[in-house]
Amino acid sequence: MGHFSSMFNGLARTFSIKRVKNNNGNSDAKEAADDMAKDAKKKELILKSSGYVNAQGSNNSASIFSKRGEKGVNQDCALVWEGFGCQEDMIFCGIFDGHGPWGHYVSKHVRNSMPSSLLCNWQNILAQATLDLEGSNKKLSRFDIWKQSYLKTCATVDQELEHHRKIDAYYSGSTSLTIVRQGDVIYVANVGDSRAVLATVSDEESLVAVQLTLDFKPNLPQEEERILGCQGRVFCLEDEPGVHRVWQPDAKTPGLAMSRAFGDYCIKDYGLVSVPEVTQRHISTKDHFIILASDGIWDVISNQEAVEIVSSTAERPKAAKRLVEQAVRAWKKKRRGISMDDMSVVCLFLHSSSSSSLSQHATTFK
Predict the structure, then answer these.
(1) Origin, by domain of life (predicted)?
(2) 154 domain-assigned
(3) pLDDT along the chain (366 residues), means of 10
(4) Contact status, residue 262 vs residue 151, Cβ threshold 8 Å
(5) How many domains does the chain have?
(6) What's the confidence (pLDDT) of residue 167?
(7) What per-residue confidence (pLDDT) applies to 13?
(8) Which of 138, 290, 334, 357 has the most CB atoms around its CB within 10 Å?
(9) Predicted pLDDT of residue 365
(10) Per-residue model confidence (pLDDT) at position 138
């Protein structure tokens, strides 16, 4: 109990500046979270473009790279926030993959809204849980707090997007794959078909890939059951065998190749949801790094290949870019005649360079 109380008290001091002025509850917490984001951006702790983040004294570092495919504007985007919520032991990472005519606007809106909203909800739920447990012997679960925070955040972001005056998300949407590292635990929240893969040392002392997320495709049994139960349809087109898509009951639209996403309100009544799957994992010294990538990478690169590409990159800042470059080569070789997808990668390194075989140089890709 003492650990969580001190955690809350430290965060509460940061939020209290806004609450001294008035007592508007959630609106104040949201404003404070937005101010934290602005301050972090000034201190170069938030990265939204291709580059590298490594705060002084932090065990975390992250490499980002995004490349436009051959289908038009790049609808992928990413974000890393080191020192998330002014907490030295926290980092937030995310990959957001848009689709549809307004997909690039949707993905950027989700990217920009989610971190502050998540921080606000985490603060409020943590505060309430701390108050509820005062004087009791119940064990406070950090996972339950993060899960509730993510569920509330995703519902809020999707609702805001539906009523956005400048973004038409009726036939457009975005996936979202995010990770929060807090000390020696990571919390993963997945909406869609981007994927997180962990590189860890096996009992045989080799570096192996462990997939941390499910690709939420419409033909997964639990996903298809929900869609069919809501009168939606799931089938492949004749010229795309093996590519299962979600369709409205009486029309050949929209043909969405994932079962969870923000936006896409044309089929929200027919089984598509924006509910995240939230999981946790305790980090050990055997865990080296985590790769977050949009589906364009995984269409042509296996989990193990991705781990080997990143681990063999001498400089951490170049890791994400090198993985994308290898995927571009694989697209040209394996998927000739098919327009290359947008591809984005975040490589989150879990230990300082002094305890890793990968060298580290702070640099930014232009």
Answers:
(1) Eukaryota
(2) yes
(3) 49 45 60 89 92 86 96 96 90 98 98 96 87 65 95 98 97 98 97 98 96 98 98 95 95 95 98 98 97 97 98 97 98 92 97 56 32
(4) no
(5) 1
(6) 98
(7) 46
(8) 290
(9) 32
(10) 66
Closest CA to 348 of 108, 171, 177: 177
Q: Report yes or no on 323 lying in a domain.
A: yes
30 vs 26: CA distance, rounded Å: 6
| Separation CA 179–CA 171 (nearest Å) | 27
The domain of 74 spans: 2-209+282-355
What are the structure tokens assigned to 33, written together?
């979270």
pLDDT for position 135: 57
Domain of residue 308, CATH code: 3.60.40.10
Res 24: pLDDT = 53
User: At 184, which amino acid appears?
Assistant: D
Three-state secondary structure readout of the chain = CHHHHHHHHHHHHHHHHHHHHCCCCHHHHHHHHHHHHHHHHHCCCEECCCEEECCCCCCCEEEEEEECCCCCCCCEEEEEEECHHHCCCEEEEEEEEEECCCHHHHHHHHHHHHHHHHHHHHHHHHHHHHHHHCCCCCCCCHHHHHHHHHHHHHHHHHHHHHCCCCCCCCCCEECEEEEEEECCEEEEEEECCCEEEEEEECCCCCEEEEECCCCCCCCCHHHHHHHHHCCCEEECCCCCCCCCEEECCCCCCEEECCCECEECHHHHHHCCECCCEEEEEECCCCEEEEEEECHHHHCCCCHHHHHHHHHCCCEHHHHHHHHHHHHHHHHHHHCCCCCCCCEEEEEEECCCHHHCCCECCCCCCC
Question: Does the residue 238 lie in any domain?
Answer: no
At 20 the pLDDT is 35
